[in-house]
Amino acid sequence: QLQLVESGGGLVQPGGSLRLSCAAPGVNLDDYAMAWYRQGPGKERERVSCISASGGSTMYADSVQGRITASKDRPNQLRHLDMQSLKPEDTAVYYCAADEAYFYPTCEGYGSWGQGTQVTVSS
Q1: Which of 13, 14, 79, 103 is positioned for an S-S bond with 33, CB 3.0–4.6 A?
Q2: How many Cα atoms are found within 13 Å in the side-chain-facing hemisphere of 106?
Q3: How many CA atoms lie within 13 A of 83 on its CB side?
Q4: Angstrom distance (rounded) from CA 73 to CA 49
Q5: How far apart are the C-alpha atoms of 75 and 108, rounded to whole Å?
């Protein structure tokens, strides 16, 4: 299993933007398919995005389509989740997950998870 570390969460006003990042110290993330999940208060965990190991293919949940972009920062070995036009219903703990490259495009059953970063959208 990988050790994944998320960062970038915080408090943002409705309509604002945030960038979340996911790192795996000492690991070449080029070999891994990754995903972003979230779990809001009283809600089930929801997958918001998954990205192939190459970074060339991505998928998004309907609830965030057009507002969220997952990307790969190869030089820094990071994965980012850029979120715009945030809504109060986007409030959640956001997690990154990773596993072998073949986990894309199924995007289920990832074996490595971070501890999560809190995103709160509120005025």
Answers
A1: 103
A2: 9
A3: 32
A4: 16
A5: 27
Q: What is the pLDDT of residue 58?
A: 93
- What integer pLDDT is reported at residue 54 of this predicted model? 87
Query: How far, in Å, CA of 96 to CA of 107, rounded?
Result: 12
Nearest to 110 by CA among 74, 69, 79: 79
Q: Residue 47: which of 119, 109, 89 has the closest Cα?
A: 109
Contact 49, 60 (CB under 8 A): yes
pLDDT tens sequence across 36-49? 999 999 999 999 99
Q: What is the pLDDT of residues 57-115, one digit of tens each?
A: 999 999 999 999 999 888 888 899 999 999 999 999 999 999 999 889 989 999 999 99
Integer Cα distance of 99 and 53 in angstroms: 9
Q: Could you give the 3-state DSSP secondary structure of residue 95?
A: strand
